[in-house]
Amino acid sequence: MKIREPRRRPAAAWPAVLGAVLLAALAVLFAQHTAAERGWTAQPSWLREALAALHDREPSVWVLAAGVASALLGLWFLVAAFVPARRSHLSAEGPGDLWISPRAVEAMAADAAERAPGVLHAATELRRRRLKVKALLAPGHEAAVADILESVGDRLAGLADLEVAVQAKEGGR
């Protein structure tokens, strides 16, 4: 049995919502046109008025702008439909089916870095497969970078295969 990977919302979710709203607006336009043509309302048809405004011999600037905008919107919809959803969790190493969220990895790495000798404070940021650790060191602890790398590596061993980079700054007195 194949287990599905946890994924984020697909890229086409927002274009789909926007497309649904545009289709609903088009339905309202056609309903108003039908009501006006059958005499159910005293208002003239919005669709007839719009088409009459478009009947100029010379194309107006707003028609050209609307055409370009709709072409770009359609291209955006097309691209978004084929972009796959990104993974929302990292897979842990091993035979089991274990997934860990990026925030949990960041929290574990920050905690491990803060437990390294000479570290006053640590913050982490995970981007794809690269974990950046920013550490504030106590004065006189330049060698703490290696300790941070070892501490974070030990804590995340077996959870995720990440490239760890440490950026350390010595704190003032």
TrEMBL record:
InterPro entries: DUF6286. The chain crosses the membrane at residues 60-83. Pfam families: DUF6286. Keywords: Membrane, Transmembrane, Transmembrane helix. Residues 72-159 form the DUF6286 domain. This is DUF6286 domain-containing protein.
